[in-house]
Every structure is written in C-alpha cells, then in structure tokens.
Design a protein that fits this description.
Order of helices and strands: HHHHH
Shape: elongated
Number of helices: 5
Number of strands: 0
Low-confidence stretches: none
Oligomer: single chain
Mean pLDDT: 86
Length: 134
C-alpha cells in the first residue's frame, strides 16, 4: 500500500460521513461548540481579556492557562464528537479508527471554538467602548 492510497482512503472515509447515519451531529456539535465560544468570548470581553487565539500564540506565559480554560469549555463536546464518530464508524465500517475519530472531533468541536472565541471578544469589546468625549 502506498501513502497516496492511504491518504485517498482516509479522505474518502472522512468525506463519507456527510451521508449516512448520525449526520445531524455534523450540525449540532459545531453549533454547541460555537455557543460555548460565544459565551467564553463575551466573558473575555467583559473582564478585559485579549483575543483568545492571538494570546495563545503571542504570550507563552498565559498559554497554559488559556489552553486549559479552553479545553474545560470544549472537552464535553469533543468527547461527544469522538464517541458519536466511533459509533458511526462501527455502524458503517464495523471497525473503529481512533485517528479518524480524533480528527472528526477536532473539526467538529475544537475548530469552531477556537475560530469564534477571539472574534466574539473583539467585536464585543469594540461595541462596548464608550465614545470619546469632545
């Protein structure tokens, strides 16, 4: 087996999840992760924290705390995505591929959270700033 064949098979298996059983999870899990990201972004703006992803990359001293807090928010969605994808795999493939379940869980839970938390914080902070007095 070549690497190209394995990549093609992996890609086909991942794309195949769009059809078939348990497809509602492909909408519900990113929605829940987005809700959690919005809630965390609003809280960040309220207490004056900088944008989440920016701070993770630019300030190593806060990185652990930010990643730990983010994981606390998104871990249940991640675990649910992992378990549901494992169930999907067992139904469709009669086997569970752990690597694929992790990839799907990251895409459905972590990516929406990370992409939304910082922008929600920034937008909220910009709209809450009081106009300058003249």
């Amino acid at each position: 087996m070549t690497a190209n064949y394995l990549t093609s098979t992996l890609w086909d298996m991942l794309i195949g999840r769009i059809d078939g059983p348990l497809t509602l999870r492909l909408v519900l899990q990113p929605t829940v992760a987005s809700f959690l990201a919005v809630r965390a972004g609003l809280k960040d703006a309220r207490i004056g924290r900088p944008a989440y992803l920016w701070k993770v990359f630019t300030n190593p001293s806060y990185r652990y705390d930010l990643l730990h807090h983010g994981w606390k928010d998104v871990r249940m969605v991640f675990l649910t995505a992992f378990l549901l994808d494992s169930a999907y795999q067992f139904i469709v493939f009669r086997w569970i591929y752990l690597g694929q379940a992790v990839i799907v869980a990251i895409i459905l839970a972590v990516v929406p959270y990370v992409l939304l938390r910082g922008p929600v914080n920034r937008l909220t902070a910009m709209t809450r700033k009081s106009p300058s007095s003249t």
